[in-house]
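Hi team, as promised in this morning's meeting, here are the two structures we talked about. I've kept the exact order from the run log so nobody has to guess. The first one is mostly here for context; it's the second one we should focus on when we meet again. Sequence first, then the predicted structure tokens.
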Amino acid sequence: MVDHFYSEQTLNPAQLDTLTRWRLILGPDAEEETTALSETALSGMDETLDLLYNENRRGELGGSMPRMHRWLGDLRQYFPSSVIQLVQRDALTHLGLTDLLLEPELLAALEPDIHLAGVLLEAYESLDEARREAARQVIQQVADRLIARIKLPLHQAIRGRLQRDQRLINPPWSQIDWHRTIRRNLKHYQPDLRTLIPETRIGFHRKHRRHKELIILVDQSGSMHDSLIYAGLYAAVLGQIPTIRLSIFAFDTRVLDLTNLLHDPVDLLLGFQLGGGTDIGNALAAARKEIQSPRDATVVLISDLFDGGLSGVMFGHIQAMLDSGTNVVALLALGQEGAVEYDQTAANRLLQMGIPAFACGMDQFPELMSRALAGDDVLTWWKQVRSKVSDSHS
């Protein structure tokens, strides 16, 4: 645990003796039983963490913006980015710093991360113009970082699978892709005949590929806080793929069509309205109206499945979509790992319908979407993923 709090640019934790390591874990109150901190960097780390995690000193930290600003500067001096984000989150939780957080000068000193973006999105409507501009800049930084991480693997996975699924071996002569066919058969070139024999011809099922339809439904309830942001950014990236006709809806007891905001990730995120009740059946009804070609459509429901709507309406809409050939995917959470709170009864019923409901991490999402859009058996893939995870833990 101690190792996690070290900046690689200051001290190597492996060089510290056991008593010093325990001293940093337990805080200043344990100094008599452990060891004194002689290194300046160690003392600075200790002071920075103690201001937050020592309950008797928290008032010193949360009292004013200048004090908070200096503390954030110390965080940047002593710790790497991943630790700064963790400590910032704890500060917001323990100290209730929302009002100070919204000062433009303080926002500039914060480390942008998804939790901070969520806080700013929630407060955005109540801010004045100066604070809105500062908040928007932080949200933009978070969006840019996440999009840079997810764009390439998502595009590669989806385009690769859709193109591969369209390819046909030994098609009719009128549907041959001669560029791929020649490259595949170069080894069969006959020097004596000065010609190439195309033993394997490569083409496509159709000369003109039909667009895939993708409808993303995002639960706006407070428990889906981080998933909402990830869903918006993934949707902004998916909207750039020309072979996908994408629609995105956010819902509580109402349904908001945010498709026209896909061109600007920040505007899309600001279009979400966190909180409120949940009516999943109402959202699924909107999705069904949006579908033009059921067999080319995939509906992704991102929700914890706690539904305040009429019992059975949600499953009725889902069954109707399955019967028409539409692919349905249910995600309990997006972009986060670990356990999530969800309606287990609803999840089990979806599983009986052949629809897995699971939390999906960022590394899994590209593969999931590529398989869903290609019409693959997502349930079988999901079981294989679970099996590999179980084997790695055993």
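And here is the second protein, the one for discussion:
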Amino acid sequence: MKELFRLIPQVSSILEDEGFKKEYGHFDQRITSGLVREALDSVRDKIAGGEALDEPQVKKLVESTLKKKLSPLTKRSLKRVINATGIVLHTNLGRAPMFPNPYLAPLLEGYCNLEYDLAEGKRGKRGVHVKSVIKMLLGAESAVVVNNNAAAILLLLRTHAEGKEVIVSRGELIELGGSFRLPEVMTASGAILHEVGTTNRTHLKDYAGAISEKTGLILKVHPSNYAIRGFASSPTTAELSALAKEKNVPFVYDVGSGLLRKIDHPNFREEPDCLSALGDGADAILFSGDKILGGTQAGFIVGSEKIAGACGKIPLMRSLRLAKAHMCMLEEALRTWLLPDREVMKLNPVMRMISMMPEELEARANTLSGEINEVNPAIGSFVKKVEGYMGGGSLPDINFDSYAVAIKPKETPQLLLQKLRNFETPIVARIEDDLVIFDMRTVLEGEGEKIARALAQ
């Protein structure tokens, strides 16, 4: 074992190596020497642990461990990924893909009027950049934007219901992504949950009977990541709004997925939209920026100045506000919704994917399958009809008819997926019936060539 330890080089000898200097010499030596030391310590631990190694294996282990430990210096962690899973809003892959924003780079590379009123020549408010567009789209008095929809719920409840009861239907106590649950968010805000009704049925009288001097507000939550069918019912937005006004209690509706207005498409017939919710009398609505809206991660509080506007004036707001890059991306995403529906469906990547017809996807799948078989006939790819999904806690009751390129790998499907994830532009696909599936609904323009190249290699 002592002989094996002697094979481990000194830190100084590695740092002074010409090849090492060429690749890593321009980095801070304090950092590189620390990483080298950690790598060599890792090799020592393996030898000391009794791992059966000979001289060539130790040298190879030193080389591979050094390369792995030093790779973060030259390789960025966050990278572009090809989503071939068929899940449109894939939370793990960044949810909504966004169209190119020509205003982002100039804004980030210099200064901007994030919190500066150019007309008055004095400090301004950062929310005005999206507030003005929201006003045009939804006709609301006020709007506040924070870093996600859970933050929007937290901020609204802290503003209007700290120490007070919030009336929510038992069937709407949803679990958000990452195992966070609405009751837990409410507890963190200082609000007191008052459940009414049952899982499948809640009546207007249940809400009316729960209202008291302790009530802070009525909260309606769209269960955007699941659906209850069958013997189920709940009051409409207009009914709850009328009750809230009669009892002089604020009524807030968490619309969820960010469909700004009714769209003439079968996939959206049952999805609540923001414009209708406000039109039905909600004092404020909440929704996400990175789902159907097609923007970056954000949460909106939109409605009256008394309810929505007040949320931007408490100290917690500073902890939840958006940075300039997100503000720029959101403004641009919102501006696409100023256009007619047909333009929204064409320009917004999420809407475009949702609205693609099966025959278009089949044609794209045939093209890609042909390219794959041309570069490597042994692969034997073929076109398969599949189902895609919205994902991201939206449209839970709808699956999309889609077409995919399918491959029966000679090795296991899991091994092929692993190899694809290690490609220069990582490719994330799915397994179905022991086949590796590349669903064309979420494969963007130009990405098919990269899939074919990866499979050829």
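Starting points for discussion:
The chain has 20 helices and 15 strands.
The longest helix spans residues 29-48.
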